[in-house]
Design a protein that fits this description.
heterodimer, A: 209 residues, 2 domains, B: alpha/beta, FAD/NAD(P)-binding domain, four-stranded antiparallel β-sheet
Chain lengths: 209, 568
């Protein structure tokens, strides 16, 4: 766990807040880790933690660099579940709960506490529609939204620091692309701008949820 | 009681591709025209390069009429309904879907107008597929040519001519019919990727060429040339380089002061007056009902909505729906056989991140009757099209060609290497109308006003399946010649709601089998005209919009020149 998820809250601030609550000494490490994150907007903390753990395996942080965790894909999904994806909130809740029950039954521990290897084994089952009712449907939902949250415009809360676009070499939004920008042997310099960083679009922002 | 408005000469229902063109010749002729549009105006600053919103969340639409009346589909009369689409493929706004379309602006080839007579002449009548209701158009390409020309110059189509007055130019489509003159602008530029594909086509002995697009390639009529920024597919143009009717014919018609645009007007029915003539239209705006009396009504609301509106407009004179006493409204429906495609993986980065779907290279050798069908078991064919267009979410959603699972570290390694190394072709293929493919009103599903939505009953037949297989094989051959290391064929999909829908109010001289005459006016209702691809009886192997627009101009001009006769 690190603080890079939220530049607005430092670890020291969190510890101070936990201290003010008067139980600093008794707070287990896990809870501190949990408290360093800003609360989820739509999901509960437990649901959010499961989702974080799932997306971290779908697009892992590895030798190829940052993944869905650094992109904040789970935060994108959480926010969208309170907006455009709200009709899917019930399906998400059922799926996340199914995932946890499956983890406890099959591996005897919460999904979030399993090894990466065990998590991958469970996700492979779920992808093949095993583990709980509607498993494959849930898997496909999460996978497509994890891709949106990793490779979509950062305006919607994912693709933080453009890690998704950098991963696949997308050189970014240009309002004009030259003939040279389209040459096969050229890799244009990444622009690292959201569509709404351009002044002509910043006045008419859509709903970011 | 509805609010009764002041009568007008012409009311046009829908200001999209077809209605948006028709208003210009009408207004220029001095007729008083009212354009009723369900959507609103959208402006360049509405068109952010935002893949999530444009391509996954249904676009910046303020009016949601289409999305609340999405047609239902079933493959045949005994099959259950297919899952309903979440988002209508077309949209409501002034300019309609010309705001976010690909803007590929093809003319049909000569064969498309004479499928029955040409097939019979060359191969015998038995080669017309069983159950097909296809007819020759009531005229040939030569009659439509002047209207193609007018529209190309009004909306600004860029391209490379292949046949000017019979003189063949191998830089363009050598299979096209004769045109009077060059395109108003040169084609969109090539890229090193499209040039690589063109070279491969030439190696195969084919004649590749750049396609036509309603996209400016230089300053044209006060609009800028294309910026190739990469968000054109289901995205509007932030610099008005796309020749949407919202920035071309509609404002030009408004400048005559003869066109009045009414936005957020949801038309419900067309009224029939004395003598079986239409007398105006009913619409709802802001919760208030209005009746707009008109001497002539032109319906231009897209295939599904045109049919639906006629079927909903029942009267004593037309108990089965307006202009439907011959039972032809909704018949001869077909949707373009355009889903079955081919994708390819190349061993290098293609840098297709910028560009637009209209910036590509075409091969027409295997379209229409451009090749000998003697030993084949189908008629027609397909146009092969590859282009430079890629956005990050769709790039990362690529197939892994069996080389990696679709998530995890191996997948991540795969897309890091290949997200910019694949390509999707667009294969538009001949589709024919059949006796049992049709549109009617859904008995169960209704829109929020309580009116039934359009129901599609349609499935591909053997001819379409064989064309699809044949054309996909040609595309695989082309990709392999260009160095692809893997290819994949995609399925044909269903004949559910689509951007390329045709028929339902077919044009033809025989009133027993067609809804409108050779001019686009109803056989049964002399002051009712119908615009859009719902009048087309064949698809060709290319995008329908320019043909729908040329036909709309022709119908409007017919009306303007014969006003007294048609107005009665």
């Amino acid at each position: 766990m690190d603080d890079s998820h939220d530049p607005l809250i430092s670890r020291r601030d969190v510890l101070k807040r936990v201290g003010i609550a008067g139980a600093a000494a008794a707070v287990p490490i896990d809870a501190i880790a949990q408290a360093t994150r800003e609360p989820f907007e739509t999901l509960t903390a437990a649901e959010g933690a499961t989702l974080e753990a799932i997306v971290a395996r779908l697009i892992p942080t590895d030798a190829n660099g940052p993944g869905a965790t650094e992109a904040r894909a789970a935060r994108y999904i959480d926010r969208a579940l309170g907006g455009f994806l709200a009709p899917l909130l019930v399906a998400y809740r059922a799926g996340l709960s199914g995932m946890e029950s499956f983890a406890r039954t099959a591996k005897g521990a919460p999904f979030t506490q399993l090894s990466a290897q065990d998590q991958d084994a469970l996700l492979t089952d779920v992808e093949s529609n095993r583990g709980f009712a509607g498993a494959a449907l849930f898997f496909n939902l999460v996978l497509s939204h994890t891709i949106q949250g990793t490779f979509g415009d950062p305006f919607y809360g994912g693709n933080a620091n453009f890690v998704g676009w950098d991963l696949i070499g997308y050189p970014g939004i240009r309002l004009t692309a030259t003939a040279n920008d389209q040459r096969m042997d050229v890799a244009p310099t990444p622009t690292h701008m959201s569509a709404y960083d351009f002044s002509m679009f910043s006045r008419k922002k859509p709903n970011a949820r | 009681m509805p609010v009764n408005l002041k009568p007008t000469d012409v009311v046009v229902i829908g200001l999209g591709a077809a209605g948006g063109v028709a208003v210009l010749p009408l207004a220029q002729a001095g007729l008083a025209v009212i354009g009723l549009e369900a959507g609103t105006w959208l402006r360049p600053d509405d068109f952010a390069p935002d893949e999530l919103r444009n391509n996954f969340r249904g676009w910046p639409q303020s009016a949601q009429k289409a999305n609340r009346e999405i047609p239902t589909h079933r493959p045949n009369a005994n099959a259950p309904a297919s899952p309903r689409l979440a988002i209508h493929p077309m949209m409501n706004a002034v300019g309609g879907t010309t705001l976010h379309y690909w803007a590929q602006s093809w003319r049909l080839n000569p064969w498309d107008f004479k499928v029955v007579s040409e097939t019979t002449r060359r191969y015998g009548a038995s080669r017309i597929p069983r159950g097909s209701t296809v007819e020759d158009w009531p005229f040939g390409l030569d009659e439509l040519e002047p209207y193609y020309d007018k529209v190309e110059y009004e909306i600004g189509v860029s391209g490379q001519a292949g046949n000017i007055k019979g003189k063949i130019d191998p830089r363009g489509n050598t299979f096209e019919g004769a045109r009077a003159r060059e395109y108003p602008m040169p084609p969109l530029r090539g890229t090193s990727f499209t040039e690589m594909m063109a070279d491969a086509a030439r190696k195969l002995g084919w004649r590749p060429f750049p396609g036509p697009a309603a996209v400016s390639t230089r300053a044209y009529q006060g609009r800028a040339g294309c910026a190739y920024h990469g968000y054109c597919a289901r995205g509007g143009c932030h610099i008005n380089a796309k020749g949407s009717t919202a920035v071309t014919t509609i404002p030009k018609a408004q400048a005559t002061k003869r066109l009045s645009v009414v936005t957020e007007a949801h038309v419900t029915t067309i009224e029939v007056g004395p003598g079986g003539r239409v007398s105006g239209v009913h619409y709802v705006k802001g919760g208030t009902e209005y009746f707009q009396p008109a001497t002539v009504v032109l319906v231009a609301s897209y295939v599904y909505e045109n049919v639906r509106m006629l079927l909903l407009s029942k009267s004593k004179a037309f108990p089965k729906g307006l202009s439907n006493n011959h039972g032809q409204v909704g018949r001869h429906y077909f949707s373009h056989n355009q889903i079955g495609g081919v994708t390819a993986l190349f061993p290098k980065r293609l840098n297709n991140w910028y560009g637009l779907p209209a910036q590509g290279v075409a091969v027409d050798e295997w379209a229409d009757d451009n090749f000998d069908h003697s030993g084949l078991d189908f008629i027609g064919g397909g146009n092969l099209w590859v282009y430079s267009d890629r956005r990050p979410i769709s790039a990362a959603s690529m197939s892994t060609y069996g080389r990696a699972q679709r998530w995890g570290s191996a997948w991540k390694t795969f897309i890091k290497q290949n997200a910019d190394s694949w390509n999707v072709s667009y294969l538009q293929k001949t589709t024919l109308p059949y006796e049992d493919n049709y549109l009617d009103l859904d008995p169960n599903v209704k829109d929020p006003l309580g009116l039934p939505v359009c129901r599609i009953t349609a499935d591909y037949k053997d001819n379409e399946r064989r064309v699809s297989t044949f054309i996909q094989d040609k595309m695989v051959e082309w990709y392999k010649a260009a160095g692809a290391i893997a290819t994949e064929k995609t399925g044909m999909g269903t004949m559910g709601p689509t951007t390329h829908a045709y028929g339902g109010t077919r044009m033809g001289s025989n009133a027993e089998t067609n809804v409108v005459d050779r001019w686009g006016f109803s056989h049964e209702v002399p002051n009712l005209g119908i615009l859009g691809a719902s009048v087309m009886g064949t698809s060709g192997a290319r995008n329908p919009t320019l043909t729908a627009q040329a036909l709309a101009w022709r119908t409007a001009e017919r009306l303007a020149k014969n006003w007294k006769q048609i107005a009665g």
